Amino acid sequence: MTVIPELHPVLDQVTRRVIARSATTRSAYLQRIRAARPPAMAGPGRESLGCANLAHGAAACGPDKLTLTATPARNLAIVTAYNDMLSAHQPFEGYPELIRAAAREAGGVAQVAGGVPAMCDGITQGRAGMELSLFSRDVIAMSTAVALSHDMFDAAVLLGVCDKIVPGLVMGALSFGHLPVLLAPAGPMPSGLPNKEKARIRQAYAAGEVGRDELLEAESRSYHGPGTCTFFGTANSNQLLMEIMGLHLPGSSFVNPGTPLRAALTAETARRALAAADDPDRAMGEIIDERAVLNGIVALLATGGSTNHTMHLVAMAGAAGVRITWDDFSDLSAVVPLLARIYPNGQADVNHFQAAGGVSLLVRELLQAGLLHDEVRTVDGPGLHRYTREPFLDGPELVWREGPTESLDKSVLRGVGDPFSPDGGLRVLHGNLGRSVVKTSAVEPDHRFVEAPAVVFDHQDELLDAYRAGELDARDFVAVVRYQGPRANGMPELHKLTPALGVLQDRGQRVAVVTDGRMSGASGKVPAALHVTPEAARGGPLEKVRDGDPIRLDTLNGTLSLLVDADEFDAREPARRTIPSGPTFGTGRELFGVFRAAVGPADEGAVIAGPGS
């Protein structure tokens, strides 16, 4: 039997304050979802439907039609983000038939209740479509709610992997938190071009040393088949979080697509969802509580995961009535050790992480250090210690066995007693420019403090033009890229800037970025103060910064400071009176005007509306 030590005092302190902060909103949420739960032994929820309603819902169900209309069998909703443009989502094409078959074997029915959009930040990077990316999360949440709104279902399986898709699916499904809900991942593609070589060629292209043909060949060798991209960006951070927050089956996150084990886990996910229909403790809204959310934060910090989750976790938690803040991330980061080195925080990819011990070893180490809550509900049953196990096929049977007790590759994954760093590498910076987050786990120690004159840009293309013109050569600077927040233009990722700035840093220049936008879930070696709030478009201090203003980015002391006389700065006129976000039309931008007007600040999750807003 696993012996779980007492909680680390900082985790205990943060947990107590999150529970106290969330008392009113969490209580109201639980009251809502418990009221929506059918009475005990009432049978399937669809039995309350009128005959015409039920006939519509069963009309095209073929062999399952009689089961739906004449028996008390449970019905499973499938909400899918399938498309065959995204490598991570292409494997979902065959999932519905697999899930339907597993449901029939279990005496139930499964229907695709709806689809949600799934866009790729890797494709839209630096393009106009990126301005729709963050807002797509709330569209996905709404689409998920529409799919589940038919009162036909007793449980749900969500099919999604990538950046905004998983948070959106979770936010939408939490509106139906009385239902048991499991997520079924697709798994990462096999390893391709080593990450170190990929990064080298990207920088060589930015420096003009190789051409587009060489760059495209390298990128194609990196992203080469079905499955999630293998670096540790937001997509794979999503998978880690869903497992450790108890919404995946144990050990299921990083099993490659197209394998017998992947298919067996998908079928078992369907069976578990149906079996949970009569268990109130397996309802999604009961599983995602304060402790589960904090477990997610700890896991993110321990692996150096995506900075995007300083917004997405806040938004997902808010949808369950749980209120977390950036201070919770910061306080936990100070005591959670960095246990994994996965690109961009190292050279390994998620397949190497999985082979070294993966989630099961990570959970074991953090539980033994008192840095995770064991007393949580999960889709596998009570207790997070269940997630120290790994799935295997024993002939045709799916079984779980205890995972490794030590890392099989300490260059990728380590124990708490021998971490890569004593802290989680995420800092919240405070100062007269506002609040921001910075990911230091991929930044070398001698680059974690930068003091230099500001070079101010209102769009990422302006910075790239200046780089190509040689205007940023042979000098230290802090690039201020403003009017990139959610209110201005939907908060696009600015990852396209990374290779150029990396070239300048490698030449010996001290460079940093300060922006109210996002950089990427794969923020890299250039120090970047991200998600600055209040954003420039809300009247934040960034709109008064001028070229040449000295800025100090100090991750050691957690400060972001403009070194200008306060009276002089207060007397300045803003750079612009209106939001200079560029076009508000084209590529669908005109459809999202109401989102830009209604979106909340980054530190509150950048949500549009709902319980977490």
Summarize the structure.
By secondary structure, the chain is of the alpha/beta class. It is 36% helix and 12% strand.
What does this protein look like?
- This protein starts with 8 loop residues before the first helix and ends in a 15-residue tail after the last helix.
- 36% of the residues lie in helices and 12% in strands.
- The mean pLDDT is 92.
- The chain has 613 residues and is an alpha/beta fold.
- The strands form 3 sheets. Strands 7-8-12-11-10-9-13-14 form an 8-stranded mixed beta sheet.
- The protein has 3 domains: 18-190 and 225-402, no CATH class; 191-224, no CATH class; 426-582, Glucose Oxidase, domain 1 (3-Layer(bba) Sandwich), CATH 3.50.30.80.
- Strand 1 (75-80), helix 5 and strand 2 (109-115) form a beta-alpha-beta unit.
- The protein is built from 23 helices and 14 strands.
